[in-house]
Amino acid sequence: MQELQNRPPAKTSKTGSEVHLILQKRDLELLRALSLLRIIDRNQTAKICGFNSTSRVNTRLLKLSRAGILKRFFFVSTLGGKKAIYCLSKKGAELIGTVPNGLSRPSDSFLIGDKFVAHQLAINEVYCAAHSYIEGGEVRRWQVFKQALSPACPVIPDAYFEIHSNEAIRPMYLEVDLGTEGIPVWNKKVKEYLGFAATGEFERLFGHSRFGVLVVTSSERRMQSLREAVGKLTSKLFYFTTLENLKACGFWQVPWLRPEGGVPQSLI
Question: Whole-model pTM?
Fold first, then answer.
């Protein structure tokens, strides 16, 4: 981190004039977050970097884009809403010693109804909520996967992280569901997680004996449908909530439901 801060100011050229930019600590925090999250919007940037002003976060994102450190796009959702989203450029990736992992599109392109973008932004909401402060609880070791967990478990989770509470550690996989996968796909996924838990492969790879799977859905109706389907296969491992509840209550306070029963549970 110190090495990054000692780099010379980032420079680029735009319409014939040079833009001089000195990277700040929270710029580097944003770049490192993008190495995991791939894309990000303004509100998520504010949460991760601690901006309290919309105008300040807008100004900073614009400067980073003009300096060639971020690439900007415009995402149009299936409901018609439009917003700017950002990813690492080649220059931005080089500043933190990683490879570009964003969108292979020209800057300022319009992304209309892009399912990957919608899904990743939903994952980001969980990331932001999970990294909010609470006394006695903390999320660490957030990981993402480009391939299956192992040959014995062909599932590719949306993320893995560990909840630390006092001296306890609760490993969790994340599945964000926007209703694009059918119940047969979910049945297969549940069986793969169950097999992963039973074979001891998880402990070999991650160093813990048990894990859970947090499922965040796009709606209450979808959550109940998945709970019913998963409940036919197991009453263990899985915890459910909706994206709306997560945003309203926060990661630590939101009620999590198991496949069976109606009593909500806390993660700590």
Answer: 0.90
